[in-house]
Specification:
Blueprint (H helix, E strand, L loop, with lengths): L9 H15 L8 H19 L5 H8 L2 H8 L5
């Protein structure tokens, strides 16, 4: 949220980018692999847009970081 709102430091933005890149390299724990790739790539692209100061990047990051849509499709249920 801080990054999307333009309140994160440059270091925080870079850390978030690295975390999303690492997430994108993982296999989907559940659900469709293409969906996983699409959702995680959108996160990476959106954070890079914020770092590059692209117009509307914060809104794109907020949309891409919709936890519910990703978790609903890919997060395994706890036993």
């Amino acid at each position: 949220a801080r990054t999307a709102a333009g309140k994160a430091s440059e270091e925080e933005q870079k850390q978030l980018l690295e975390m999303y890149k690492a997430l994108a390299e993982q296999k989907a724990p559940k659900g469709d692999a293409d969906s996983w790739d699409e959702k995680t790539e959108a996160l990476v692209v959106a954070v890079q847009g914020v770092i590059d100061d692209n117009e509307g990047a914060g809104a794109k990051l907020t949309k891409a970081a919709n936890c519910g849509s990703c978790h609903g499709a890919h997060k395994p249920k706890k036993n």
